[in-house]
C-alpha cells in the first residue's frame, strides 16, 4: 500500500464501488410535456442513476419544436439520468451547468428519494431584468474560461487514465480458474507434456496432489471442447454433451449469477483423494469471460445412460443389475462420507442432495454420484462443517425428517451423513421397484408419489414424513425373493425417524457387497 499509484487506484475503486452500490430510483418523466401536444407526465426508473429536472428559457415553439414567435417561455423537462450518461459519482457532466449559462438554463440532479425531480432548479434573472445588460460571451474573464473549459477537460483526462490503469490491473489480477488470458495452445509451456486423451488425463491428474489437473491445463482443455447437444437441465443451468479430441465429455454450464455454486462444485470435485470409480470423474472447470458476461463451465466424464432416474424410467432390471446399481451407488456414498487421514488424506464429505437424478449410470451398469454442488466437508481437527449452510437445502421429496422439521443439529457433521443415508434409502426403493423377477416388477415412481403432489412443498413433506411417519410401501412380492428382501431391510434401516439408528454408508455398502458375491456364485 506504499505505492502512491496503488493508493490512488484503491481510492478510485472505492468511489466506483460507492457509485455501483447506488440503489434504484423512480423519477418523474416529462419530456417537453409543457410544449403544445407534449407527452403527459409519466414515471421512469433508473437502476444506478439520478432524477433530473431541467429548466430552460426558450421561445414559443410549435409541437414540432419550431419557433412560432419571439415570445419568451420557460420550459421544464424532467427525466431519468442513467448510469451510462455520467462519469463519476457527484460529477455527472449532464448535471453541470456553467454559472454563465444559469440565466438561460439550469439543471438539478438528485437521488435522495423517489420523484425528487418534482423540485425544479431556479433560473438566474436576466441582467436586463436586474436593470443591467444581458450577459454575453465577451463578459467571460480568462479565469472563468479556465474554470469552465480547462477543468472539465483535465478531469476527463485524469478519469480516463485511472480507468485504463484500473482495467489493466483487473486483467492482470489472478482469479480462481483464470490463468493468463487465452493461451495459444502451441506456445503453452505445458503443452509438450499435455495429455491427449481422457485416459492420459486421468493418469496426469492422479500424479500430482491427487486433486485434479493444473488450472492452465483445465482451461486449455475447456477451450478445445465443442458443445454438441443438451442432455440435462437441473437446478442451476444446462448440461451438454461435448466433444474433446473425439471423446465425449459432459459440460455443466452455470449462468454467471451462479458463480458461487460453480466455484463450490469445482472446489469439492478437486478435494484431494476424492477421485473414485463411483464418483463422477471431474475433468476441468473454466470461466469464459467475453467482457460482458461470464460463462462458467464444469467439465466431467460423460455417461450416455444419463441419470439413474432416466435409466430406471426407461427399463426394468434383473436382480444382478439391481444389486450392481445399489452396491456401486453405496460405494460412492461411502467414499464421500469416509475421512482418509494423513498428508494426502481426504475430509469426510456429505452430499446433501442424494436422489436418483443426481446419480449417473455408467456404460457397465455401475453408478457414480454426481452433482456435488451442495456438498459439505468436515474439518476433523476443528470439528467444523466447512461452509455456512442451512438445513433447508436439497430436494424436499428426499429430505430427511430432521431436515424437514428443522431439528437437525448442524454443528454435528454426522447429522449430514445420516440425512444422506435417509435419502439413499429412498433411492434403493426406486431401484428395487424396477427389479423384474418372473416378469413381475413395479412401474417407476418417485418416493411418496402416492401421497404428495408432483412438486411438494416443505409442509406437504413434513406432514407425511414427520407427522404421519409414512415411508414408501414395500410390495409383498419382495419378501419372496432373497435380493429384494435384503434391499427392503436395508431401505427400512436407512429411513428410521431416529437418525442415530440408521445404517452407515459403509454398512450398506458391505451388505450389498455380500449380496453381490452371492449373485456372482449363482452365475
Ligand atoms: P444440477 O446441479 O443443475 O441439478 P446435475 O449435475 O444434477 O445438475 O445434472 C442435471 C442432469 O444432467 C442430470 O440429472 C443428468 O440427467 C444430466 N447429467 C449431468 N451430468 C451428466 C453426465 N456427466 N453424463 C450424462 N448426463 C449427465
Ligand atoms: Mg442435480
Q: How does this model look, in words?
A:
- This protein has twelve helices and 15 strands.
- The strands form five sheets. It has a five-stranded antiparallel beta sheet, with helices on both faces. The protein has a three-stranded antiparallel beta sheet with strand order 4-3-5, with no helix packed on it. Strands 11-14-15 form a three-stranded antiparallel beta sheet.
- Mean pLDDT is 83; it is low at 88-92, 132-139 and 172-190.
- The N and C termini lie far apart (72 Å).
- It is of the alpha+beta class.
- The protein folds into three domains: 4-129 and 139-171, CD59 (Ribbon); 189-301, Phosphorylase Kinase, domain 1, CATH 3.30.200; 308-518, Transferase(Phosphotransferase), domain 1.
- The protein has helices at residues 4-21, 142-172, 198-207, 215-223, 259-269, 308-314, 319-337, 401-404, 413-433, 458-467, 482-494, 505-522, and strands spanning 25-29, 42-46, 50-61, 67-81, 105-110, 226-233, 238-244, 247-254, 282-289, 294-301, 348-350, 359-361, 367-369, 376-379, 384-385.
- 33% of the residues lie in helices and 19% in strands.
- Bound molecules: adenosine-5'-diphosphate and magnesium ion.
- Residues 234-235, 357-358, 371 line the site of magnesium ion.
- It is an enzyme of class 2 (transferase).
- It is found in: Membrane.
- It is a single-pass type I membrane protein.
Strand order of the largest sheet: 6-7-8-10-9
User: What is the class of the largest domain in the CATH system?
Assistant: Mainly Alpha
Distance, first to last CA: 72 Å
> What class would the helix/strand composition place it in?
alpha+beta
Ions and ligands:
adenosine-5'-diphosphate, magnesium ion
Strand content: 15-25%
Low confidence ranges: 88-92, 132-139, 172-190
The percent range for helix content is 25-40%
The CATH homologous superfamily of the largest domain is named Transferase(Phosphotransferase) domain 1
